[in-house]
Amino acid sequence: MTAARATVVRNLIRRRGKAPSPSLFGVCGGASSSSRSAVGFGGSSLFGNDTSAVRAGTRAWSSSSSPSPPHRPSSLPSTTIRRMPAPARRTFARSSTPCDETPEDKARTFLLTVGYEPDLADGIVAALRESGLSGEALLSTIRSMAGRWEVGEDEGLEALAGSVRQQLAARDGKSTVKFWVVPPNAWDSGETEKEGGSAPKPLEEEGDEDREVMMTRAFEVEALEGTSITDVAKFGTSSGASTLGEYIECACSGIMACSTCHVVIDPKWHERVGKACEDEQDMLDLAYGPRETSRLGCQVVLTKEMDGLVVRIPGGANNLMDFVPFEG
To answer: Nearest 10 degrees: CA dihedral of 48, 51, 56, 57?
Structure first.
């Protein structure tokens, strides 16, 4: 009877112009008995032995104008489907971003960080490039030559910078400036007051005779305008510059953090050279034997108007950098 019931249903469906799916009834294509019973036509699991339910269902389906089966309404209530917002796109910070900066650009940036002027930084990079270095080798060389520049431990970069500075000054047509340097043994250069003796003679009390004797021991130094007295002492090429380098030290690399380049400007030239700023004066207060016209050599930049300048070298130097506890 099972096959008969399946045939009845199949014929009713054909009247509606639809072919039943063989798998729906589980009787075609060699379907197993387990699949047939699961649908309800192979046993009594769904309709039992009563066939009235099947007949009622098929009659209702055949007389309906809707092609939908009886257990499914012809129309479903309209519902609004809300679209869930798309999750925000997550971005992650990168440890390093692509950069178009070349090694030469990085070298220039590093030189600016150290404290060199833009023109001088370009000159240093150009000088190393002319020597055959380029790319990462050039950048590595500059960093190595800088040494521990934060604490004034240079490994050759200062000497290169001084040489380049002289070349730039010559290229730009800078004038030559001549000035005179009085060594410490040619004038009252000590700080005898602190040593328990009499105070040194004030500069304004010196007579013409004292000055004549003093100038007989002075030596001449030539330099290009735009350079500081300290730069001349460290990088100058004239014989007078070499002698000056024996008297002047620059322990802080010219960042105004020591007083080892302390010089005394002759009173007649003090107004033309100018007074020290507040930060410079703080260092001069710690210098050896400071006077009213004391200046730091790294802060005195030579100009045409200083041609003939007279500076004096103190009888000693206080190097505060020796007492700074740098960690190696």
So the answer is: 60
Q: What radius of gyration do the chain's Cα atoms show?
A: 49
* Distance from C-alpha of 263 to C-alpha of 248, rounded to nearest angstrom: 8
Per-residue pLDDT tens over the stretch 262-313: 999 999 999 999 999 999 999 999 999 899 999 999 999 999 999 999 999 9
If one counts every other C-beta atom within 10 angstroms of the C-beta of residue 121, the result is 22
- Model's pTM, two decimal places? 0.58
pLDDT at 34 over 60: no
Per the DSSP assignment, residues forming a β-bridge with 262 are: 296
pLDDT value at position 9? Answer: 54
CB 179 within 8 A of CB 310: yes
Question: Closest by alpha carbon to 306, among 170, 180, 186, 206?
Answer: 180
Going by their DSSP bridges, the two strands 176-182 and 309-312 should be labelled as parallel
Contact between residue 230 and residue 298 where contact means Cβ atoms under 8 Å apart: yes
* Strand ranges in 184-283 using DSSP code E only, listed in sequence order: 219-224, 262-265
Are 295 and 312 contacting, i.e. CB atoms less than 8 angstroms apart? no
Q: Are 273 and 300 in contact (CB under 8 A)?
A: yes
Which residues, including other chains, have CB under 8 Å from residue 255's CB and lie 6 or more apart? 115, 152
Q: Are 205 and 139 in contact (CB under 8 A)?
A: no
Q: What is the distance between the alpha carbons of residues 201 and 263, in angstroms, rounded to a whole number? A: 17
Q: Which contiguous run of DSSP H or E holds residue 223?
A: strand 219-224
